[in-house]
C-alpha cells in the first residue's frame, strides 16, 4: 500500500542506482546465495527509505526543486533484523526536522504503543537511563516531538474508539473489576513528582459464555467518585444484564457499586480476603489458617460451604478472637458465588481471571519504568487490552460453557445472593 501510494503520486518507482547494482553483482560473484538474498533485501529496503525521504523533502538527492522543504544532512546507521539475517540500513538525516521511515515503524499495535510511550518520554527529556539506552538501540535518537505526536495521535484514536465502543450487543452477567499500579509523573517535565497510579480494568463474561474487555481508566482506586464515574460510563455504553460483580474490597469501589449496580450481587475476591485474614494471625500460624480457609471452598453444595464457613469461623475465633467478627462481616460477600451454577464457582469466586491481564500490563510497563503522563498509560495499556480482547474473541473455546450459562438463566428469577448494600444511597 505504501509503495502504491508513492507510485500514484510521483510516477513509477526509480530504478536501482549503479552503486546498488554493483553491490548486488559483487554478492552474486561471491557465490554465497544467502548473502545475495540478504543484500537484495537490504538494497530494496534502502531504496524504499530513500524514496520516502525524497517524498518528505520534496526533491531527490542533488535535484533542484522549488517545493523542497529541507535538505539531506548525511545518514545514521540502523540495524534491522530480517528473515534473511541482520542488514545495516542508512537513515537519511535532515537539516531541518526529522525523518524516520514508515517501513521501520513497529507493525503490531502493542509494539507501536510501547515505541510511542518510550519516545514520548525521550523527546520530552523525562526518560530514565534505561529508556535512553533503549531509544539508542531502536535507532530513534533523532526523532522529533512532532513525529512522536503523530504516532501517539494515531494510537490514541484507536484506543479511544475501543474504550468508548457500544456494549449493548449482548448481556454481561459476570463483571470483573481489578486494579494494578504503575509509576507516573503527575506533571510534565523533570520537576513532576512520580506517583503510583491505579489502572482499573473491567472485563465481562457474556450470556454466551465468552469473555470481553469492557473498559479501562486511570485514577485513585480508593476514590468513590472515580469508581462511580467509571461504572456509569460502562452503563452509558450499553452494559446490561449484570448479575454478579467480582472485585476486591476497595472502599471507594464498594460504595460506588451500591449506587451504580443496585440489587446486583457482589463477590468479594476470596484470594484477597484470605490475604487480609492472614494479616491478623501470627506468621507461624498462617499456614494452618490458610489450609482451614481453603477447605471451605472444597465443599460440593452451597449448604456445605455455608456450614464449613461457620465451623471454620468458630474454630479460628477460639484461637484468634479478632477473626470471628472479621469473618462474620465478610461472609455474605465472600460466599456470594454459591448462588450461581456450580460449574462457574472456580471462575467467579475471585479476580484471578484478571491476573493474566495484569501480568501482561506489568510486563509491558516494566520496559518504560516511569510513564511521562496518564495519557501514555492509557495508550500502552489500551493497546495491550485490545490485543488481548481480539485474542479472546478469536478463540474457539468459550470461557464458560453454553450449557452452564443456560443454568444461570434457568435460575434468573431467584432472589440475588449477597446483593450490594445500597447503604444511604
Topology:
Layout: H1 2-10, H2 18-29, H3 33-57, E1 72-82, E2 85-94, H4 109-123, H5 129-138, H6 145-163, E3 174-185, E4 194-205, E5 211-219, H7 224-236, E6 244-247, H8 251-260, E7 265-268, H9 270-278, H10 286-296, H11 302-319, H12 323-334, H13 345-348, H14 355-368, E8 370-371, H15 374-394, H16 402-410
Parallel strand pairs: 3-6, 3-8, 6-7
Antiparallel strand pairs: 1-2, 3-4, 4-5
Helix pairs in contact: 2-3, 4-5, 4-6, 4-15, 6-15, 7-8, 10-11, 11-12, 14-15
Radius of gyration: 28 Å
Total helices: the number is: 16
Task: State the secondary-structure class.
Answer: alpha/beta
Contiguous runs where pLDDT drops below 50 for at least 5 residues: 1-16, 412-416
For the termini, the CA-CA separation is 56 Å
Described by strand count, sense and barrel closure, the largest sheet is: 6 strands, mixed
Strand content: 15-25%
Give the total of domains: 2
Number of strands: 8
Shape: elongated
Helix/strand order: HHHEEHHHEEEHEHEHHHHHHEHH
- The averaged pLDDT comes out at 81
3D architecture notes:
It contains 16 helices and 8 strands. It has helices at residues 2-10, 18-29, 33-57, 109-123, 129-138, 145-163, 224-236, 251-260, 270-278, 286-296, 302-319, 323-334, 345-348, 355-368, 374-394, 402-410; strands spanning 72-82, 85-94, 174-185, 194-205, 211-219, 244-247, 265-268, 370-371. With 425 residues, the protein is an alpha/beta fold. The strands form 2 sheets. Strands 3, 4, 5, 6, 7 and 8 form a 6-stranded mixed beta sheet that branches. The chain has a two-stranded antiparallel sheet with strand order 1-2. This is Mutator family transposase. Belongs to the transposase mutator family.
Amino acid at each position: 500500500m505504501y509503495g502504491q501510494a508513492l507510485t500514484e503520486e510521483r510516477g513509477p518507482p526509480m530504478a536501482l542506482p549503479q552503486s546498488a547494482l554493483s553491490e548486488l553483482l559483487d554478492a552474486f560473484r561471491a557465490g554465497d546465495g544467502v548473502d545475495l538474498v540478504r543484500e537484495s533485501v537490504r538494497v530494496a529496503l534502502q531504496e524504499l527509505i530513500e524514496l520516502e525521504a525524497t517524498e518528505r523533502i520534496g526533491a531527490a538527492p542533488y535535484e533542484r526543486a522549488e517545493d523542497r522543504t529541507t535538505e539531506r544532512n548525511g545518514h545514521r546507521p540502523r540495524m534491522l533484523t530480517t528473515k534473511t539475517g541482520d542488514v545495516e540500513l542508512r537513515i537519511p538525516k535532515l537539516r531541518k526536522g526529522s525523518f524516520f521511515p514508515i517501513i521501520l515503524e513497529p507493525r503490531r499495535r502493542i509494539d507501536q504503543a510501547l515505541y510511542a510511550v518510550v519516545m514520548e518520554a525521550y523527546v520530552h527529556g523525562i526518560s530514565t537511563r534505561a529508556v535512553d539506552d533503549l531509544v539508542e538501540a531502536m535507532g530513534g535518537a533523532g526523532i522529533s516531538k512532532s513525529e512522536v505526536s503523530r504516532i501517539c495521535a494515531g494510537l490514541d484514536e484507536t484506543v479511544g474508539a475501543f474504550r468508548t465502543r457500544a456494549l449493548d450487543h449482548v448481556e454481561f452477567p459476570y463483571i470483573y473489576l481489578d486494579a494494578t499500579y504503575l509509576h507516573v509523573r503527575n506533571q510534565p517535565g523533570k520537576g513532576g513528582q512520580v506517583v503510583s497510579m491505579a489502572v482499573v480494568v473491567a472485563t465481562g463474561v457474556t450470556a454466551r459464555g465468552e469473555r470481553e474487555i469492557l473498559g479501562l481508566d486511570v485514577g485513585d482506586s480508593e476514590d468513590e467518585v472515580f469508581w462511580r464515574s467509571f461504572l456509569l460510563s460502562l452503563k452509558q455504553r450499553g452494559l446490561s444484564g449484570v448479575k454478579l460483580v467480582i472485585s476486591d474490597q476497595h472502599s471507594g469501589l464498594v460504595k460506588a457499586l451500591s449506587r451504580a449496580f443496585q440489587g446486583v450481587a457482589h463477590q468479594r475476591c476470596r484470594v484477597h480476603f484470605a490475604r487480609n485474614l492472614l494479616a491478623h494471625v501470627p506468621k507461624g500460624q498462617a499456614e494452618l489458617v490458610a489450609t482451614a480457609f481453603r477447605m471451605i471452598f472444597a465443599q460440593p453444595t452451597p449448604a456445605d460451604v455455608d456450614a464449613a464457613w461457620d465451623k471454620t469461623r468458630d474454630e479460628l475465633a477460639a484461637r484468634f478472637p479478632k477473626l470471628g467478627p472479621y469473618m462474620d462481616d465478610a461472609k455474605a460477600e465472600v460466599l456470594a458465588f454459591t448462588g450461581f451454577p456450580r460449574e462457574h464457582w472456580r471462575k467467579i469466586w475471585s479476580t484471578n481471571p484478571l491476573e493474566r491481564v495484569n501480568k501482561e500490563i506489568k510486563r509491558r510497563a516494566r520496559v518504560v519504568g516511569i510513564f511521562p503522563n496518564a495519557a501514555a498509560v492509557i495508550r500502552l495499556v489500551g493497546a495491550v487490552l485490545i490485543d488481548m480482547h481480539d485474542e479472546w474473541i478469536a478463540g474457539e473455546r468459550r470461557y464458560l460453557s453454553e450449557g452452564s450459562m443456560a443454568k444461570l438463566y434457568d435460575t434468573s428469577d431467584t432472589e440475588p445472593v449477597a446483593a450490594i448494600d445500597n447503604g444511604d444511597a
